[in-house]
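Quick one: structure for this chain?
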Amino acid sequence: MDLRGAFRQATPVTDILVITGLSGAGRSQAADDLEDLGWFVVDNLPNSLIEKVVELGSLRGSSIPRLALVVGSGKLQAGIVEVVERLRNAGHHVRVLFLDCDDAELVRRYGSTRRKHPLGEEGLTVHEAIRHERAMLEPVKEQADVVIDTTELNIHQLKARIVDLFGEDSPAAGMQTTVTSFGYKHGLPLDADMVFDVRFLPNPFWVESLRDQTGLDGPVRDYVLGQVTAEGFLEKVEALVVELLPAYVAEGKSYLTIGIGCTGGRHRSVAISEELARRLRRHGYEPKVRHRDVQRH
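Got it. Here's what it folds into:
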């Protein structure tokens, strides 16, 4: 067969997902989860072969509508931003997923599995290799469409996030918005695009009858939303987000995560996140809501 002629007859794969991120953050697990969802997955792929694989997947008669390409470790991800740009310029719909994780958890994972870090062969300690790879991949993370922080996720929770973002019912175009509540004492969410601090509101934790409840319970919700400052805050954030969302869409952003934080992530941030999502739905958006720390104490 004349492959050049075949490529001229090629049509773009419906959906291409490029999986990047830190070694040990869950790229292989994400690949397994996508395969379970019916994606055609190619793992540990060098940049030099990505465009060729996409060409082959786009041949007339191909039955690969959803193609997931898992890029290798830090060195192999160099130049991936340019490859993705070329694919998009060629008419392909491409999204980039970046798997992140904090340094301490990555060190723990490497210690428990006794695996060597891919950059460890250069004489670096595990911690040094992680920091080196993180700095190397910062430009990739900046260009990613969605970042998943796997620090606190087990394999089942990661799969739920993958299904939520890339399952059959997830839109392949447009933009998905997520409102995430969290507790500052457990750290900032690494995947948040914008963050709002609601620690200025009175804390239900100091009300004995509310302490053991969460922002998902009526009494706590009423206490938080009943504050005059809460109403003013929500009005301003609602107006800001509604104004910015079309601009993000116009820029081609596929995912937007809004973080709402309080001290522990169980009361104020949960109630405010639920209410903000409800208000955004009035404007025709369908935000997902996640409560990262609601079960933590």
